[in-house]
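sorry for the late reply, my laptop died twice this morning and i had to redo everyting from scratch. anyway the thing you sent over, i finally got around to it. pasting the sequence first so we're on the same page, its 305 residues, then the predicted structure underneath. double check i copied it right bc i was rushing
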Amino acid sequence: MSSPPPEATPSTLEPVKPPTAELLIVTGMSGAGRSTAANALEDLGWYVVDNLPPQMLGTLADLVSRTPQTLPKLAVVIDVRGKALFNDMRETLAALERSGVEFSVLFLEASDEVLVSRYELQRRPHPLQAGGRILDGIRAERELLRDLRETADSVLDTSSFNVHALTKAVADMFSTSGPVVLRLTVMSFGFKYGVPADANFLADVRFIPNPHWVPALRPRTGKDPEVRDYVFGHHGTPTFVDRFVAMLEPVFAGYRTENKHYASIAIGCTGGKHRSVAITEEVARRLSKSPRVTVNIQHRDLGRE
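ok and here's the structure:
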C-alpha cells in the first residue's frame, strides 16, 4: 500500500502571484462623450469615479493597489470641470509613474464643429467659455489638453459617433480584461466620406481596379465572393495584403510589450463598398490568428450609398 502524499508545507507550495488592478483614466474634450464612455465602462464591470480632482488620484490609486480584489477595474474620469484643480494633472500622472503605479489613459476628442453642435443642442455653456463663445472655450480646452492627448495610450475620435456607436467602441476596447490582450479594430471606409481621425494605421487600396465599373458587381459588396475574387484577382492585391499584415505583426507585438491595449486600422477605397471591404475582411481574418489579439471588424460606410 502506497503511503499518502506528503502534506504541503510553505516551502513546497507554489507561490501565488498577487492580483493586480487595472486603473484607467478617462479624459478629453468636453462634449466628446466622457459620460457615455463612463457609463459603458460601468456596464462592463468597471468601478467608475466621475469628476475626481487630480490631487486625489494618488490616494485612490494607493487604495486600489492595496485592495485589488475589491476594485479590480477602476476607471476615473478627470477633466477641466475641476478648473484650477486640473492644472496639476500633468504632475499627478508623473507622480503615479514615479511611484510605480500602472495606469492607462483614454482620451476622447471630436472636431470643433461637432463639439459646437453638441453644446448648442444641449444649450449649456462650455466650462472654459467664460464670457466668450462656445468655440472660444473649446479652443482653450484643446490647448490646455494638448500635452495630455499626445501622451495618452488611446485616442478615440467620437465626431461620427452617436451614443450607441460610442458605447460599442468602448466595449470593443475594454470588454476583455488583461494587459497582454491587444484589441484591434479593422475598419473599411470610403475616402469620399472622410478619413477616420482615430486610425493608428491607414491603407489606401484605390490602386486596385474598382468593381464599381463592372455592371454585374456594382450592386454587390466586398463581402460577396464574386467581388472578393475580382479584388484578389488583381496581381498586386495578394502581395499588398501579405506585406501589410507582415508589417503590422511586429508592431502589435511591441504594443503588447508596452501594455498598449487598443489599435485601429483603417482601409479605404473610394466609396467603402467593394475593395476596402474585401481587404478588411481578409486582413482581419489573418490578424485574428495572432496570439493574444482580439479583432473587431467595422465597415463604416457600407450601405451608405
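Residues 182-299 form one domain.
thats about all i looked at so far, will dig more tmrw
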